[in-house]
Amino acid sequence: MKARHKRFSLIAAGLILLVIATVLITQSFKSNLVFFFTPTQVEKGQAPKTGSFRIGGLVENGSLKRLPDGLRVQFRVTDTAKTMQVIYKGILPDLFKEGKGVVAEGKLGAAGIFEADQVLAKHDENYMPPEAAAALKAASDAKMKAGTM
């Protein structure tokens, strides 16, 4: 085999390995990617029907209930326009309170109830995820427009 053919074979093998590595990395990112939605977006069908995603907004006042089994809690998340029921099994974060911001990660279960695997509470008064802040502002603006017409 000539040196030219050996060089070409090595370059081709390197390119094939690079393509395989790129495909594997892309698949890994795709399976770990979790999107954020508001209750309004979930109700409109923009959230995935299967698979995990995040829902965010404010914990509706008076909605927090401990279920009889003692392990699960139920609460409603609102973006001021729409509300969604959430069930979570586990210990809630210390900063979790009604009327405060929350992001829950999980999937949509039966009857449109969101089954959370993880609940994240807002960690200080000045911070809110940009997506949640924009969604709350948009919902509030839409509510104001509907009220003035």
Task: Describe the structure in your own words.
The protein is an alpha+beta fold and 149 residues long. It has two domains: 1-32; 36-148, Nucleic acid-binding proteins (OB fold (Dihydrolipoamide Acetyltransferase, E2P), Beta Barrel). The protein is built from three helices and seven strands. The chain has helices at 3-32, 39-43, 130-148; strands at 36-37, 53-59, 65-66, 72-78, 83-89, 101-108, 114-121. Strands 2-4-5-7-6 form a five-stranded mixed β-barrel.
**Form type:** elongated
Number of strand elements: 7
CATH class of the largest domain: Mainly Beta
Mean pLDDT: 84
State the end-to-end CA separation: 82 Å
Provide a concise account of the structure shown:
With 149 residues, this protein is an alpha+beta fold. The chain has 2 domains: 1-32; 36-148, Beta Barrel (OB fold (Dihydrolipoamide Acetyltransferase, E2P)), CATH 2.40.50.
Please give the structural blueprint.
Elements: H1 3-32, E1 36-37, H2 39-43, E2 53-59, E3 65-66, E4 72-78, E5 83-89, E6 101-108, E7 114-121, H3 130-148
Parallel strand pairs: 1-2, 5-7
Antiparallel strand pairs: 2-4, 2-6, 3-4, 4-5, 6-7
Sum up the structure in keywords.
OB fold (Dihydrolipoamide Acetyltransferase, E2P), 149 residues, 2 domains, alpha+beta, elongated, 3 helices, five-stranded mixed β-barrel
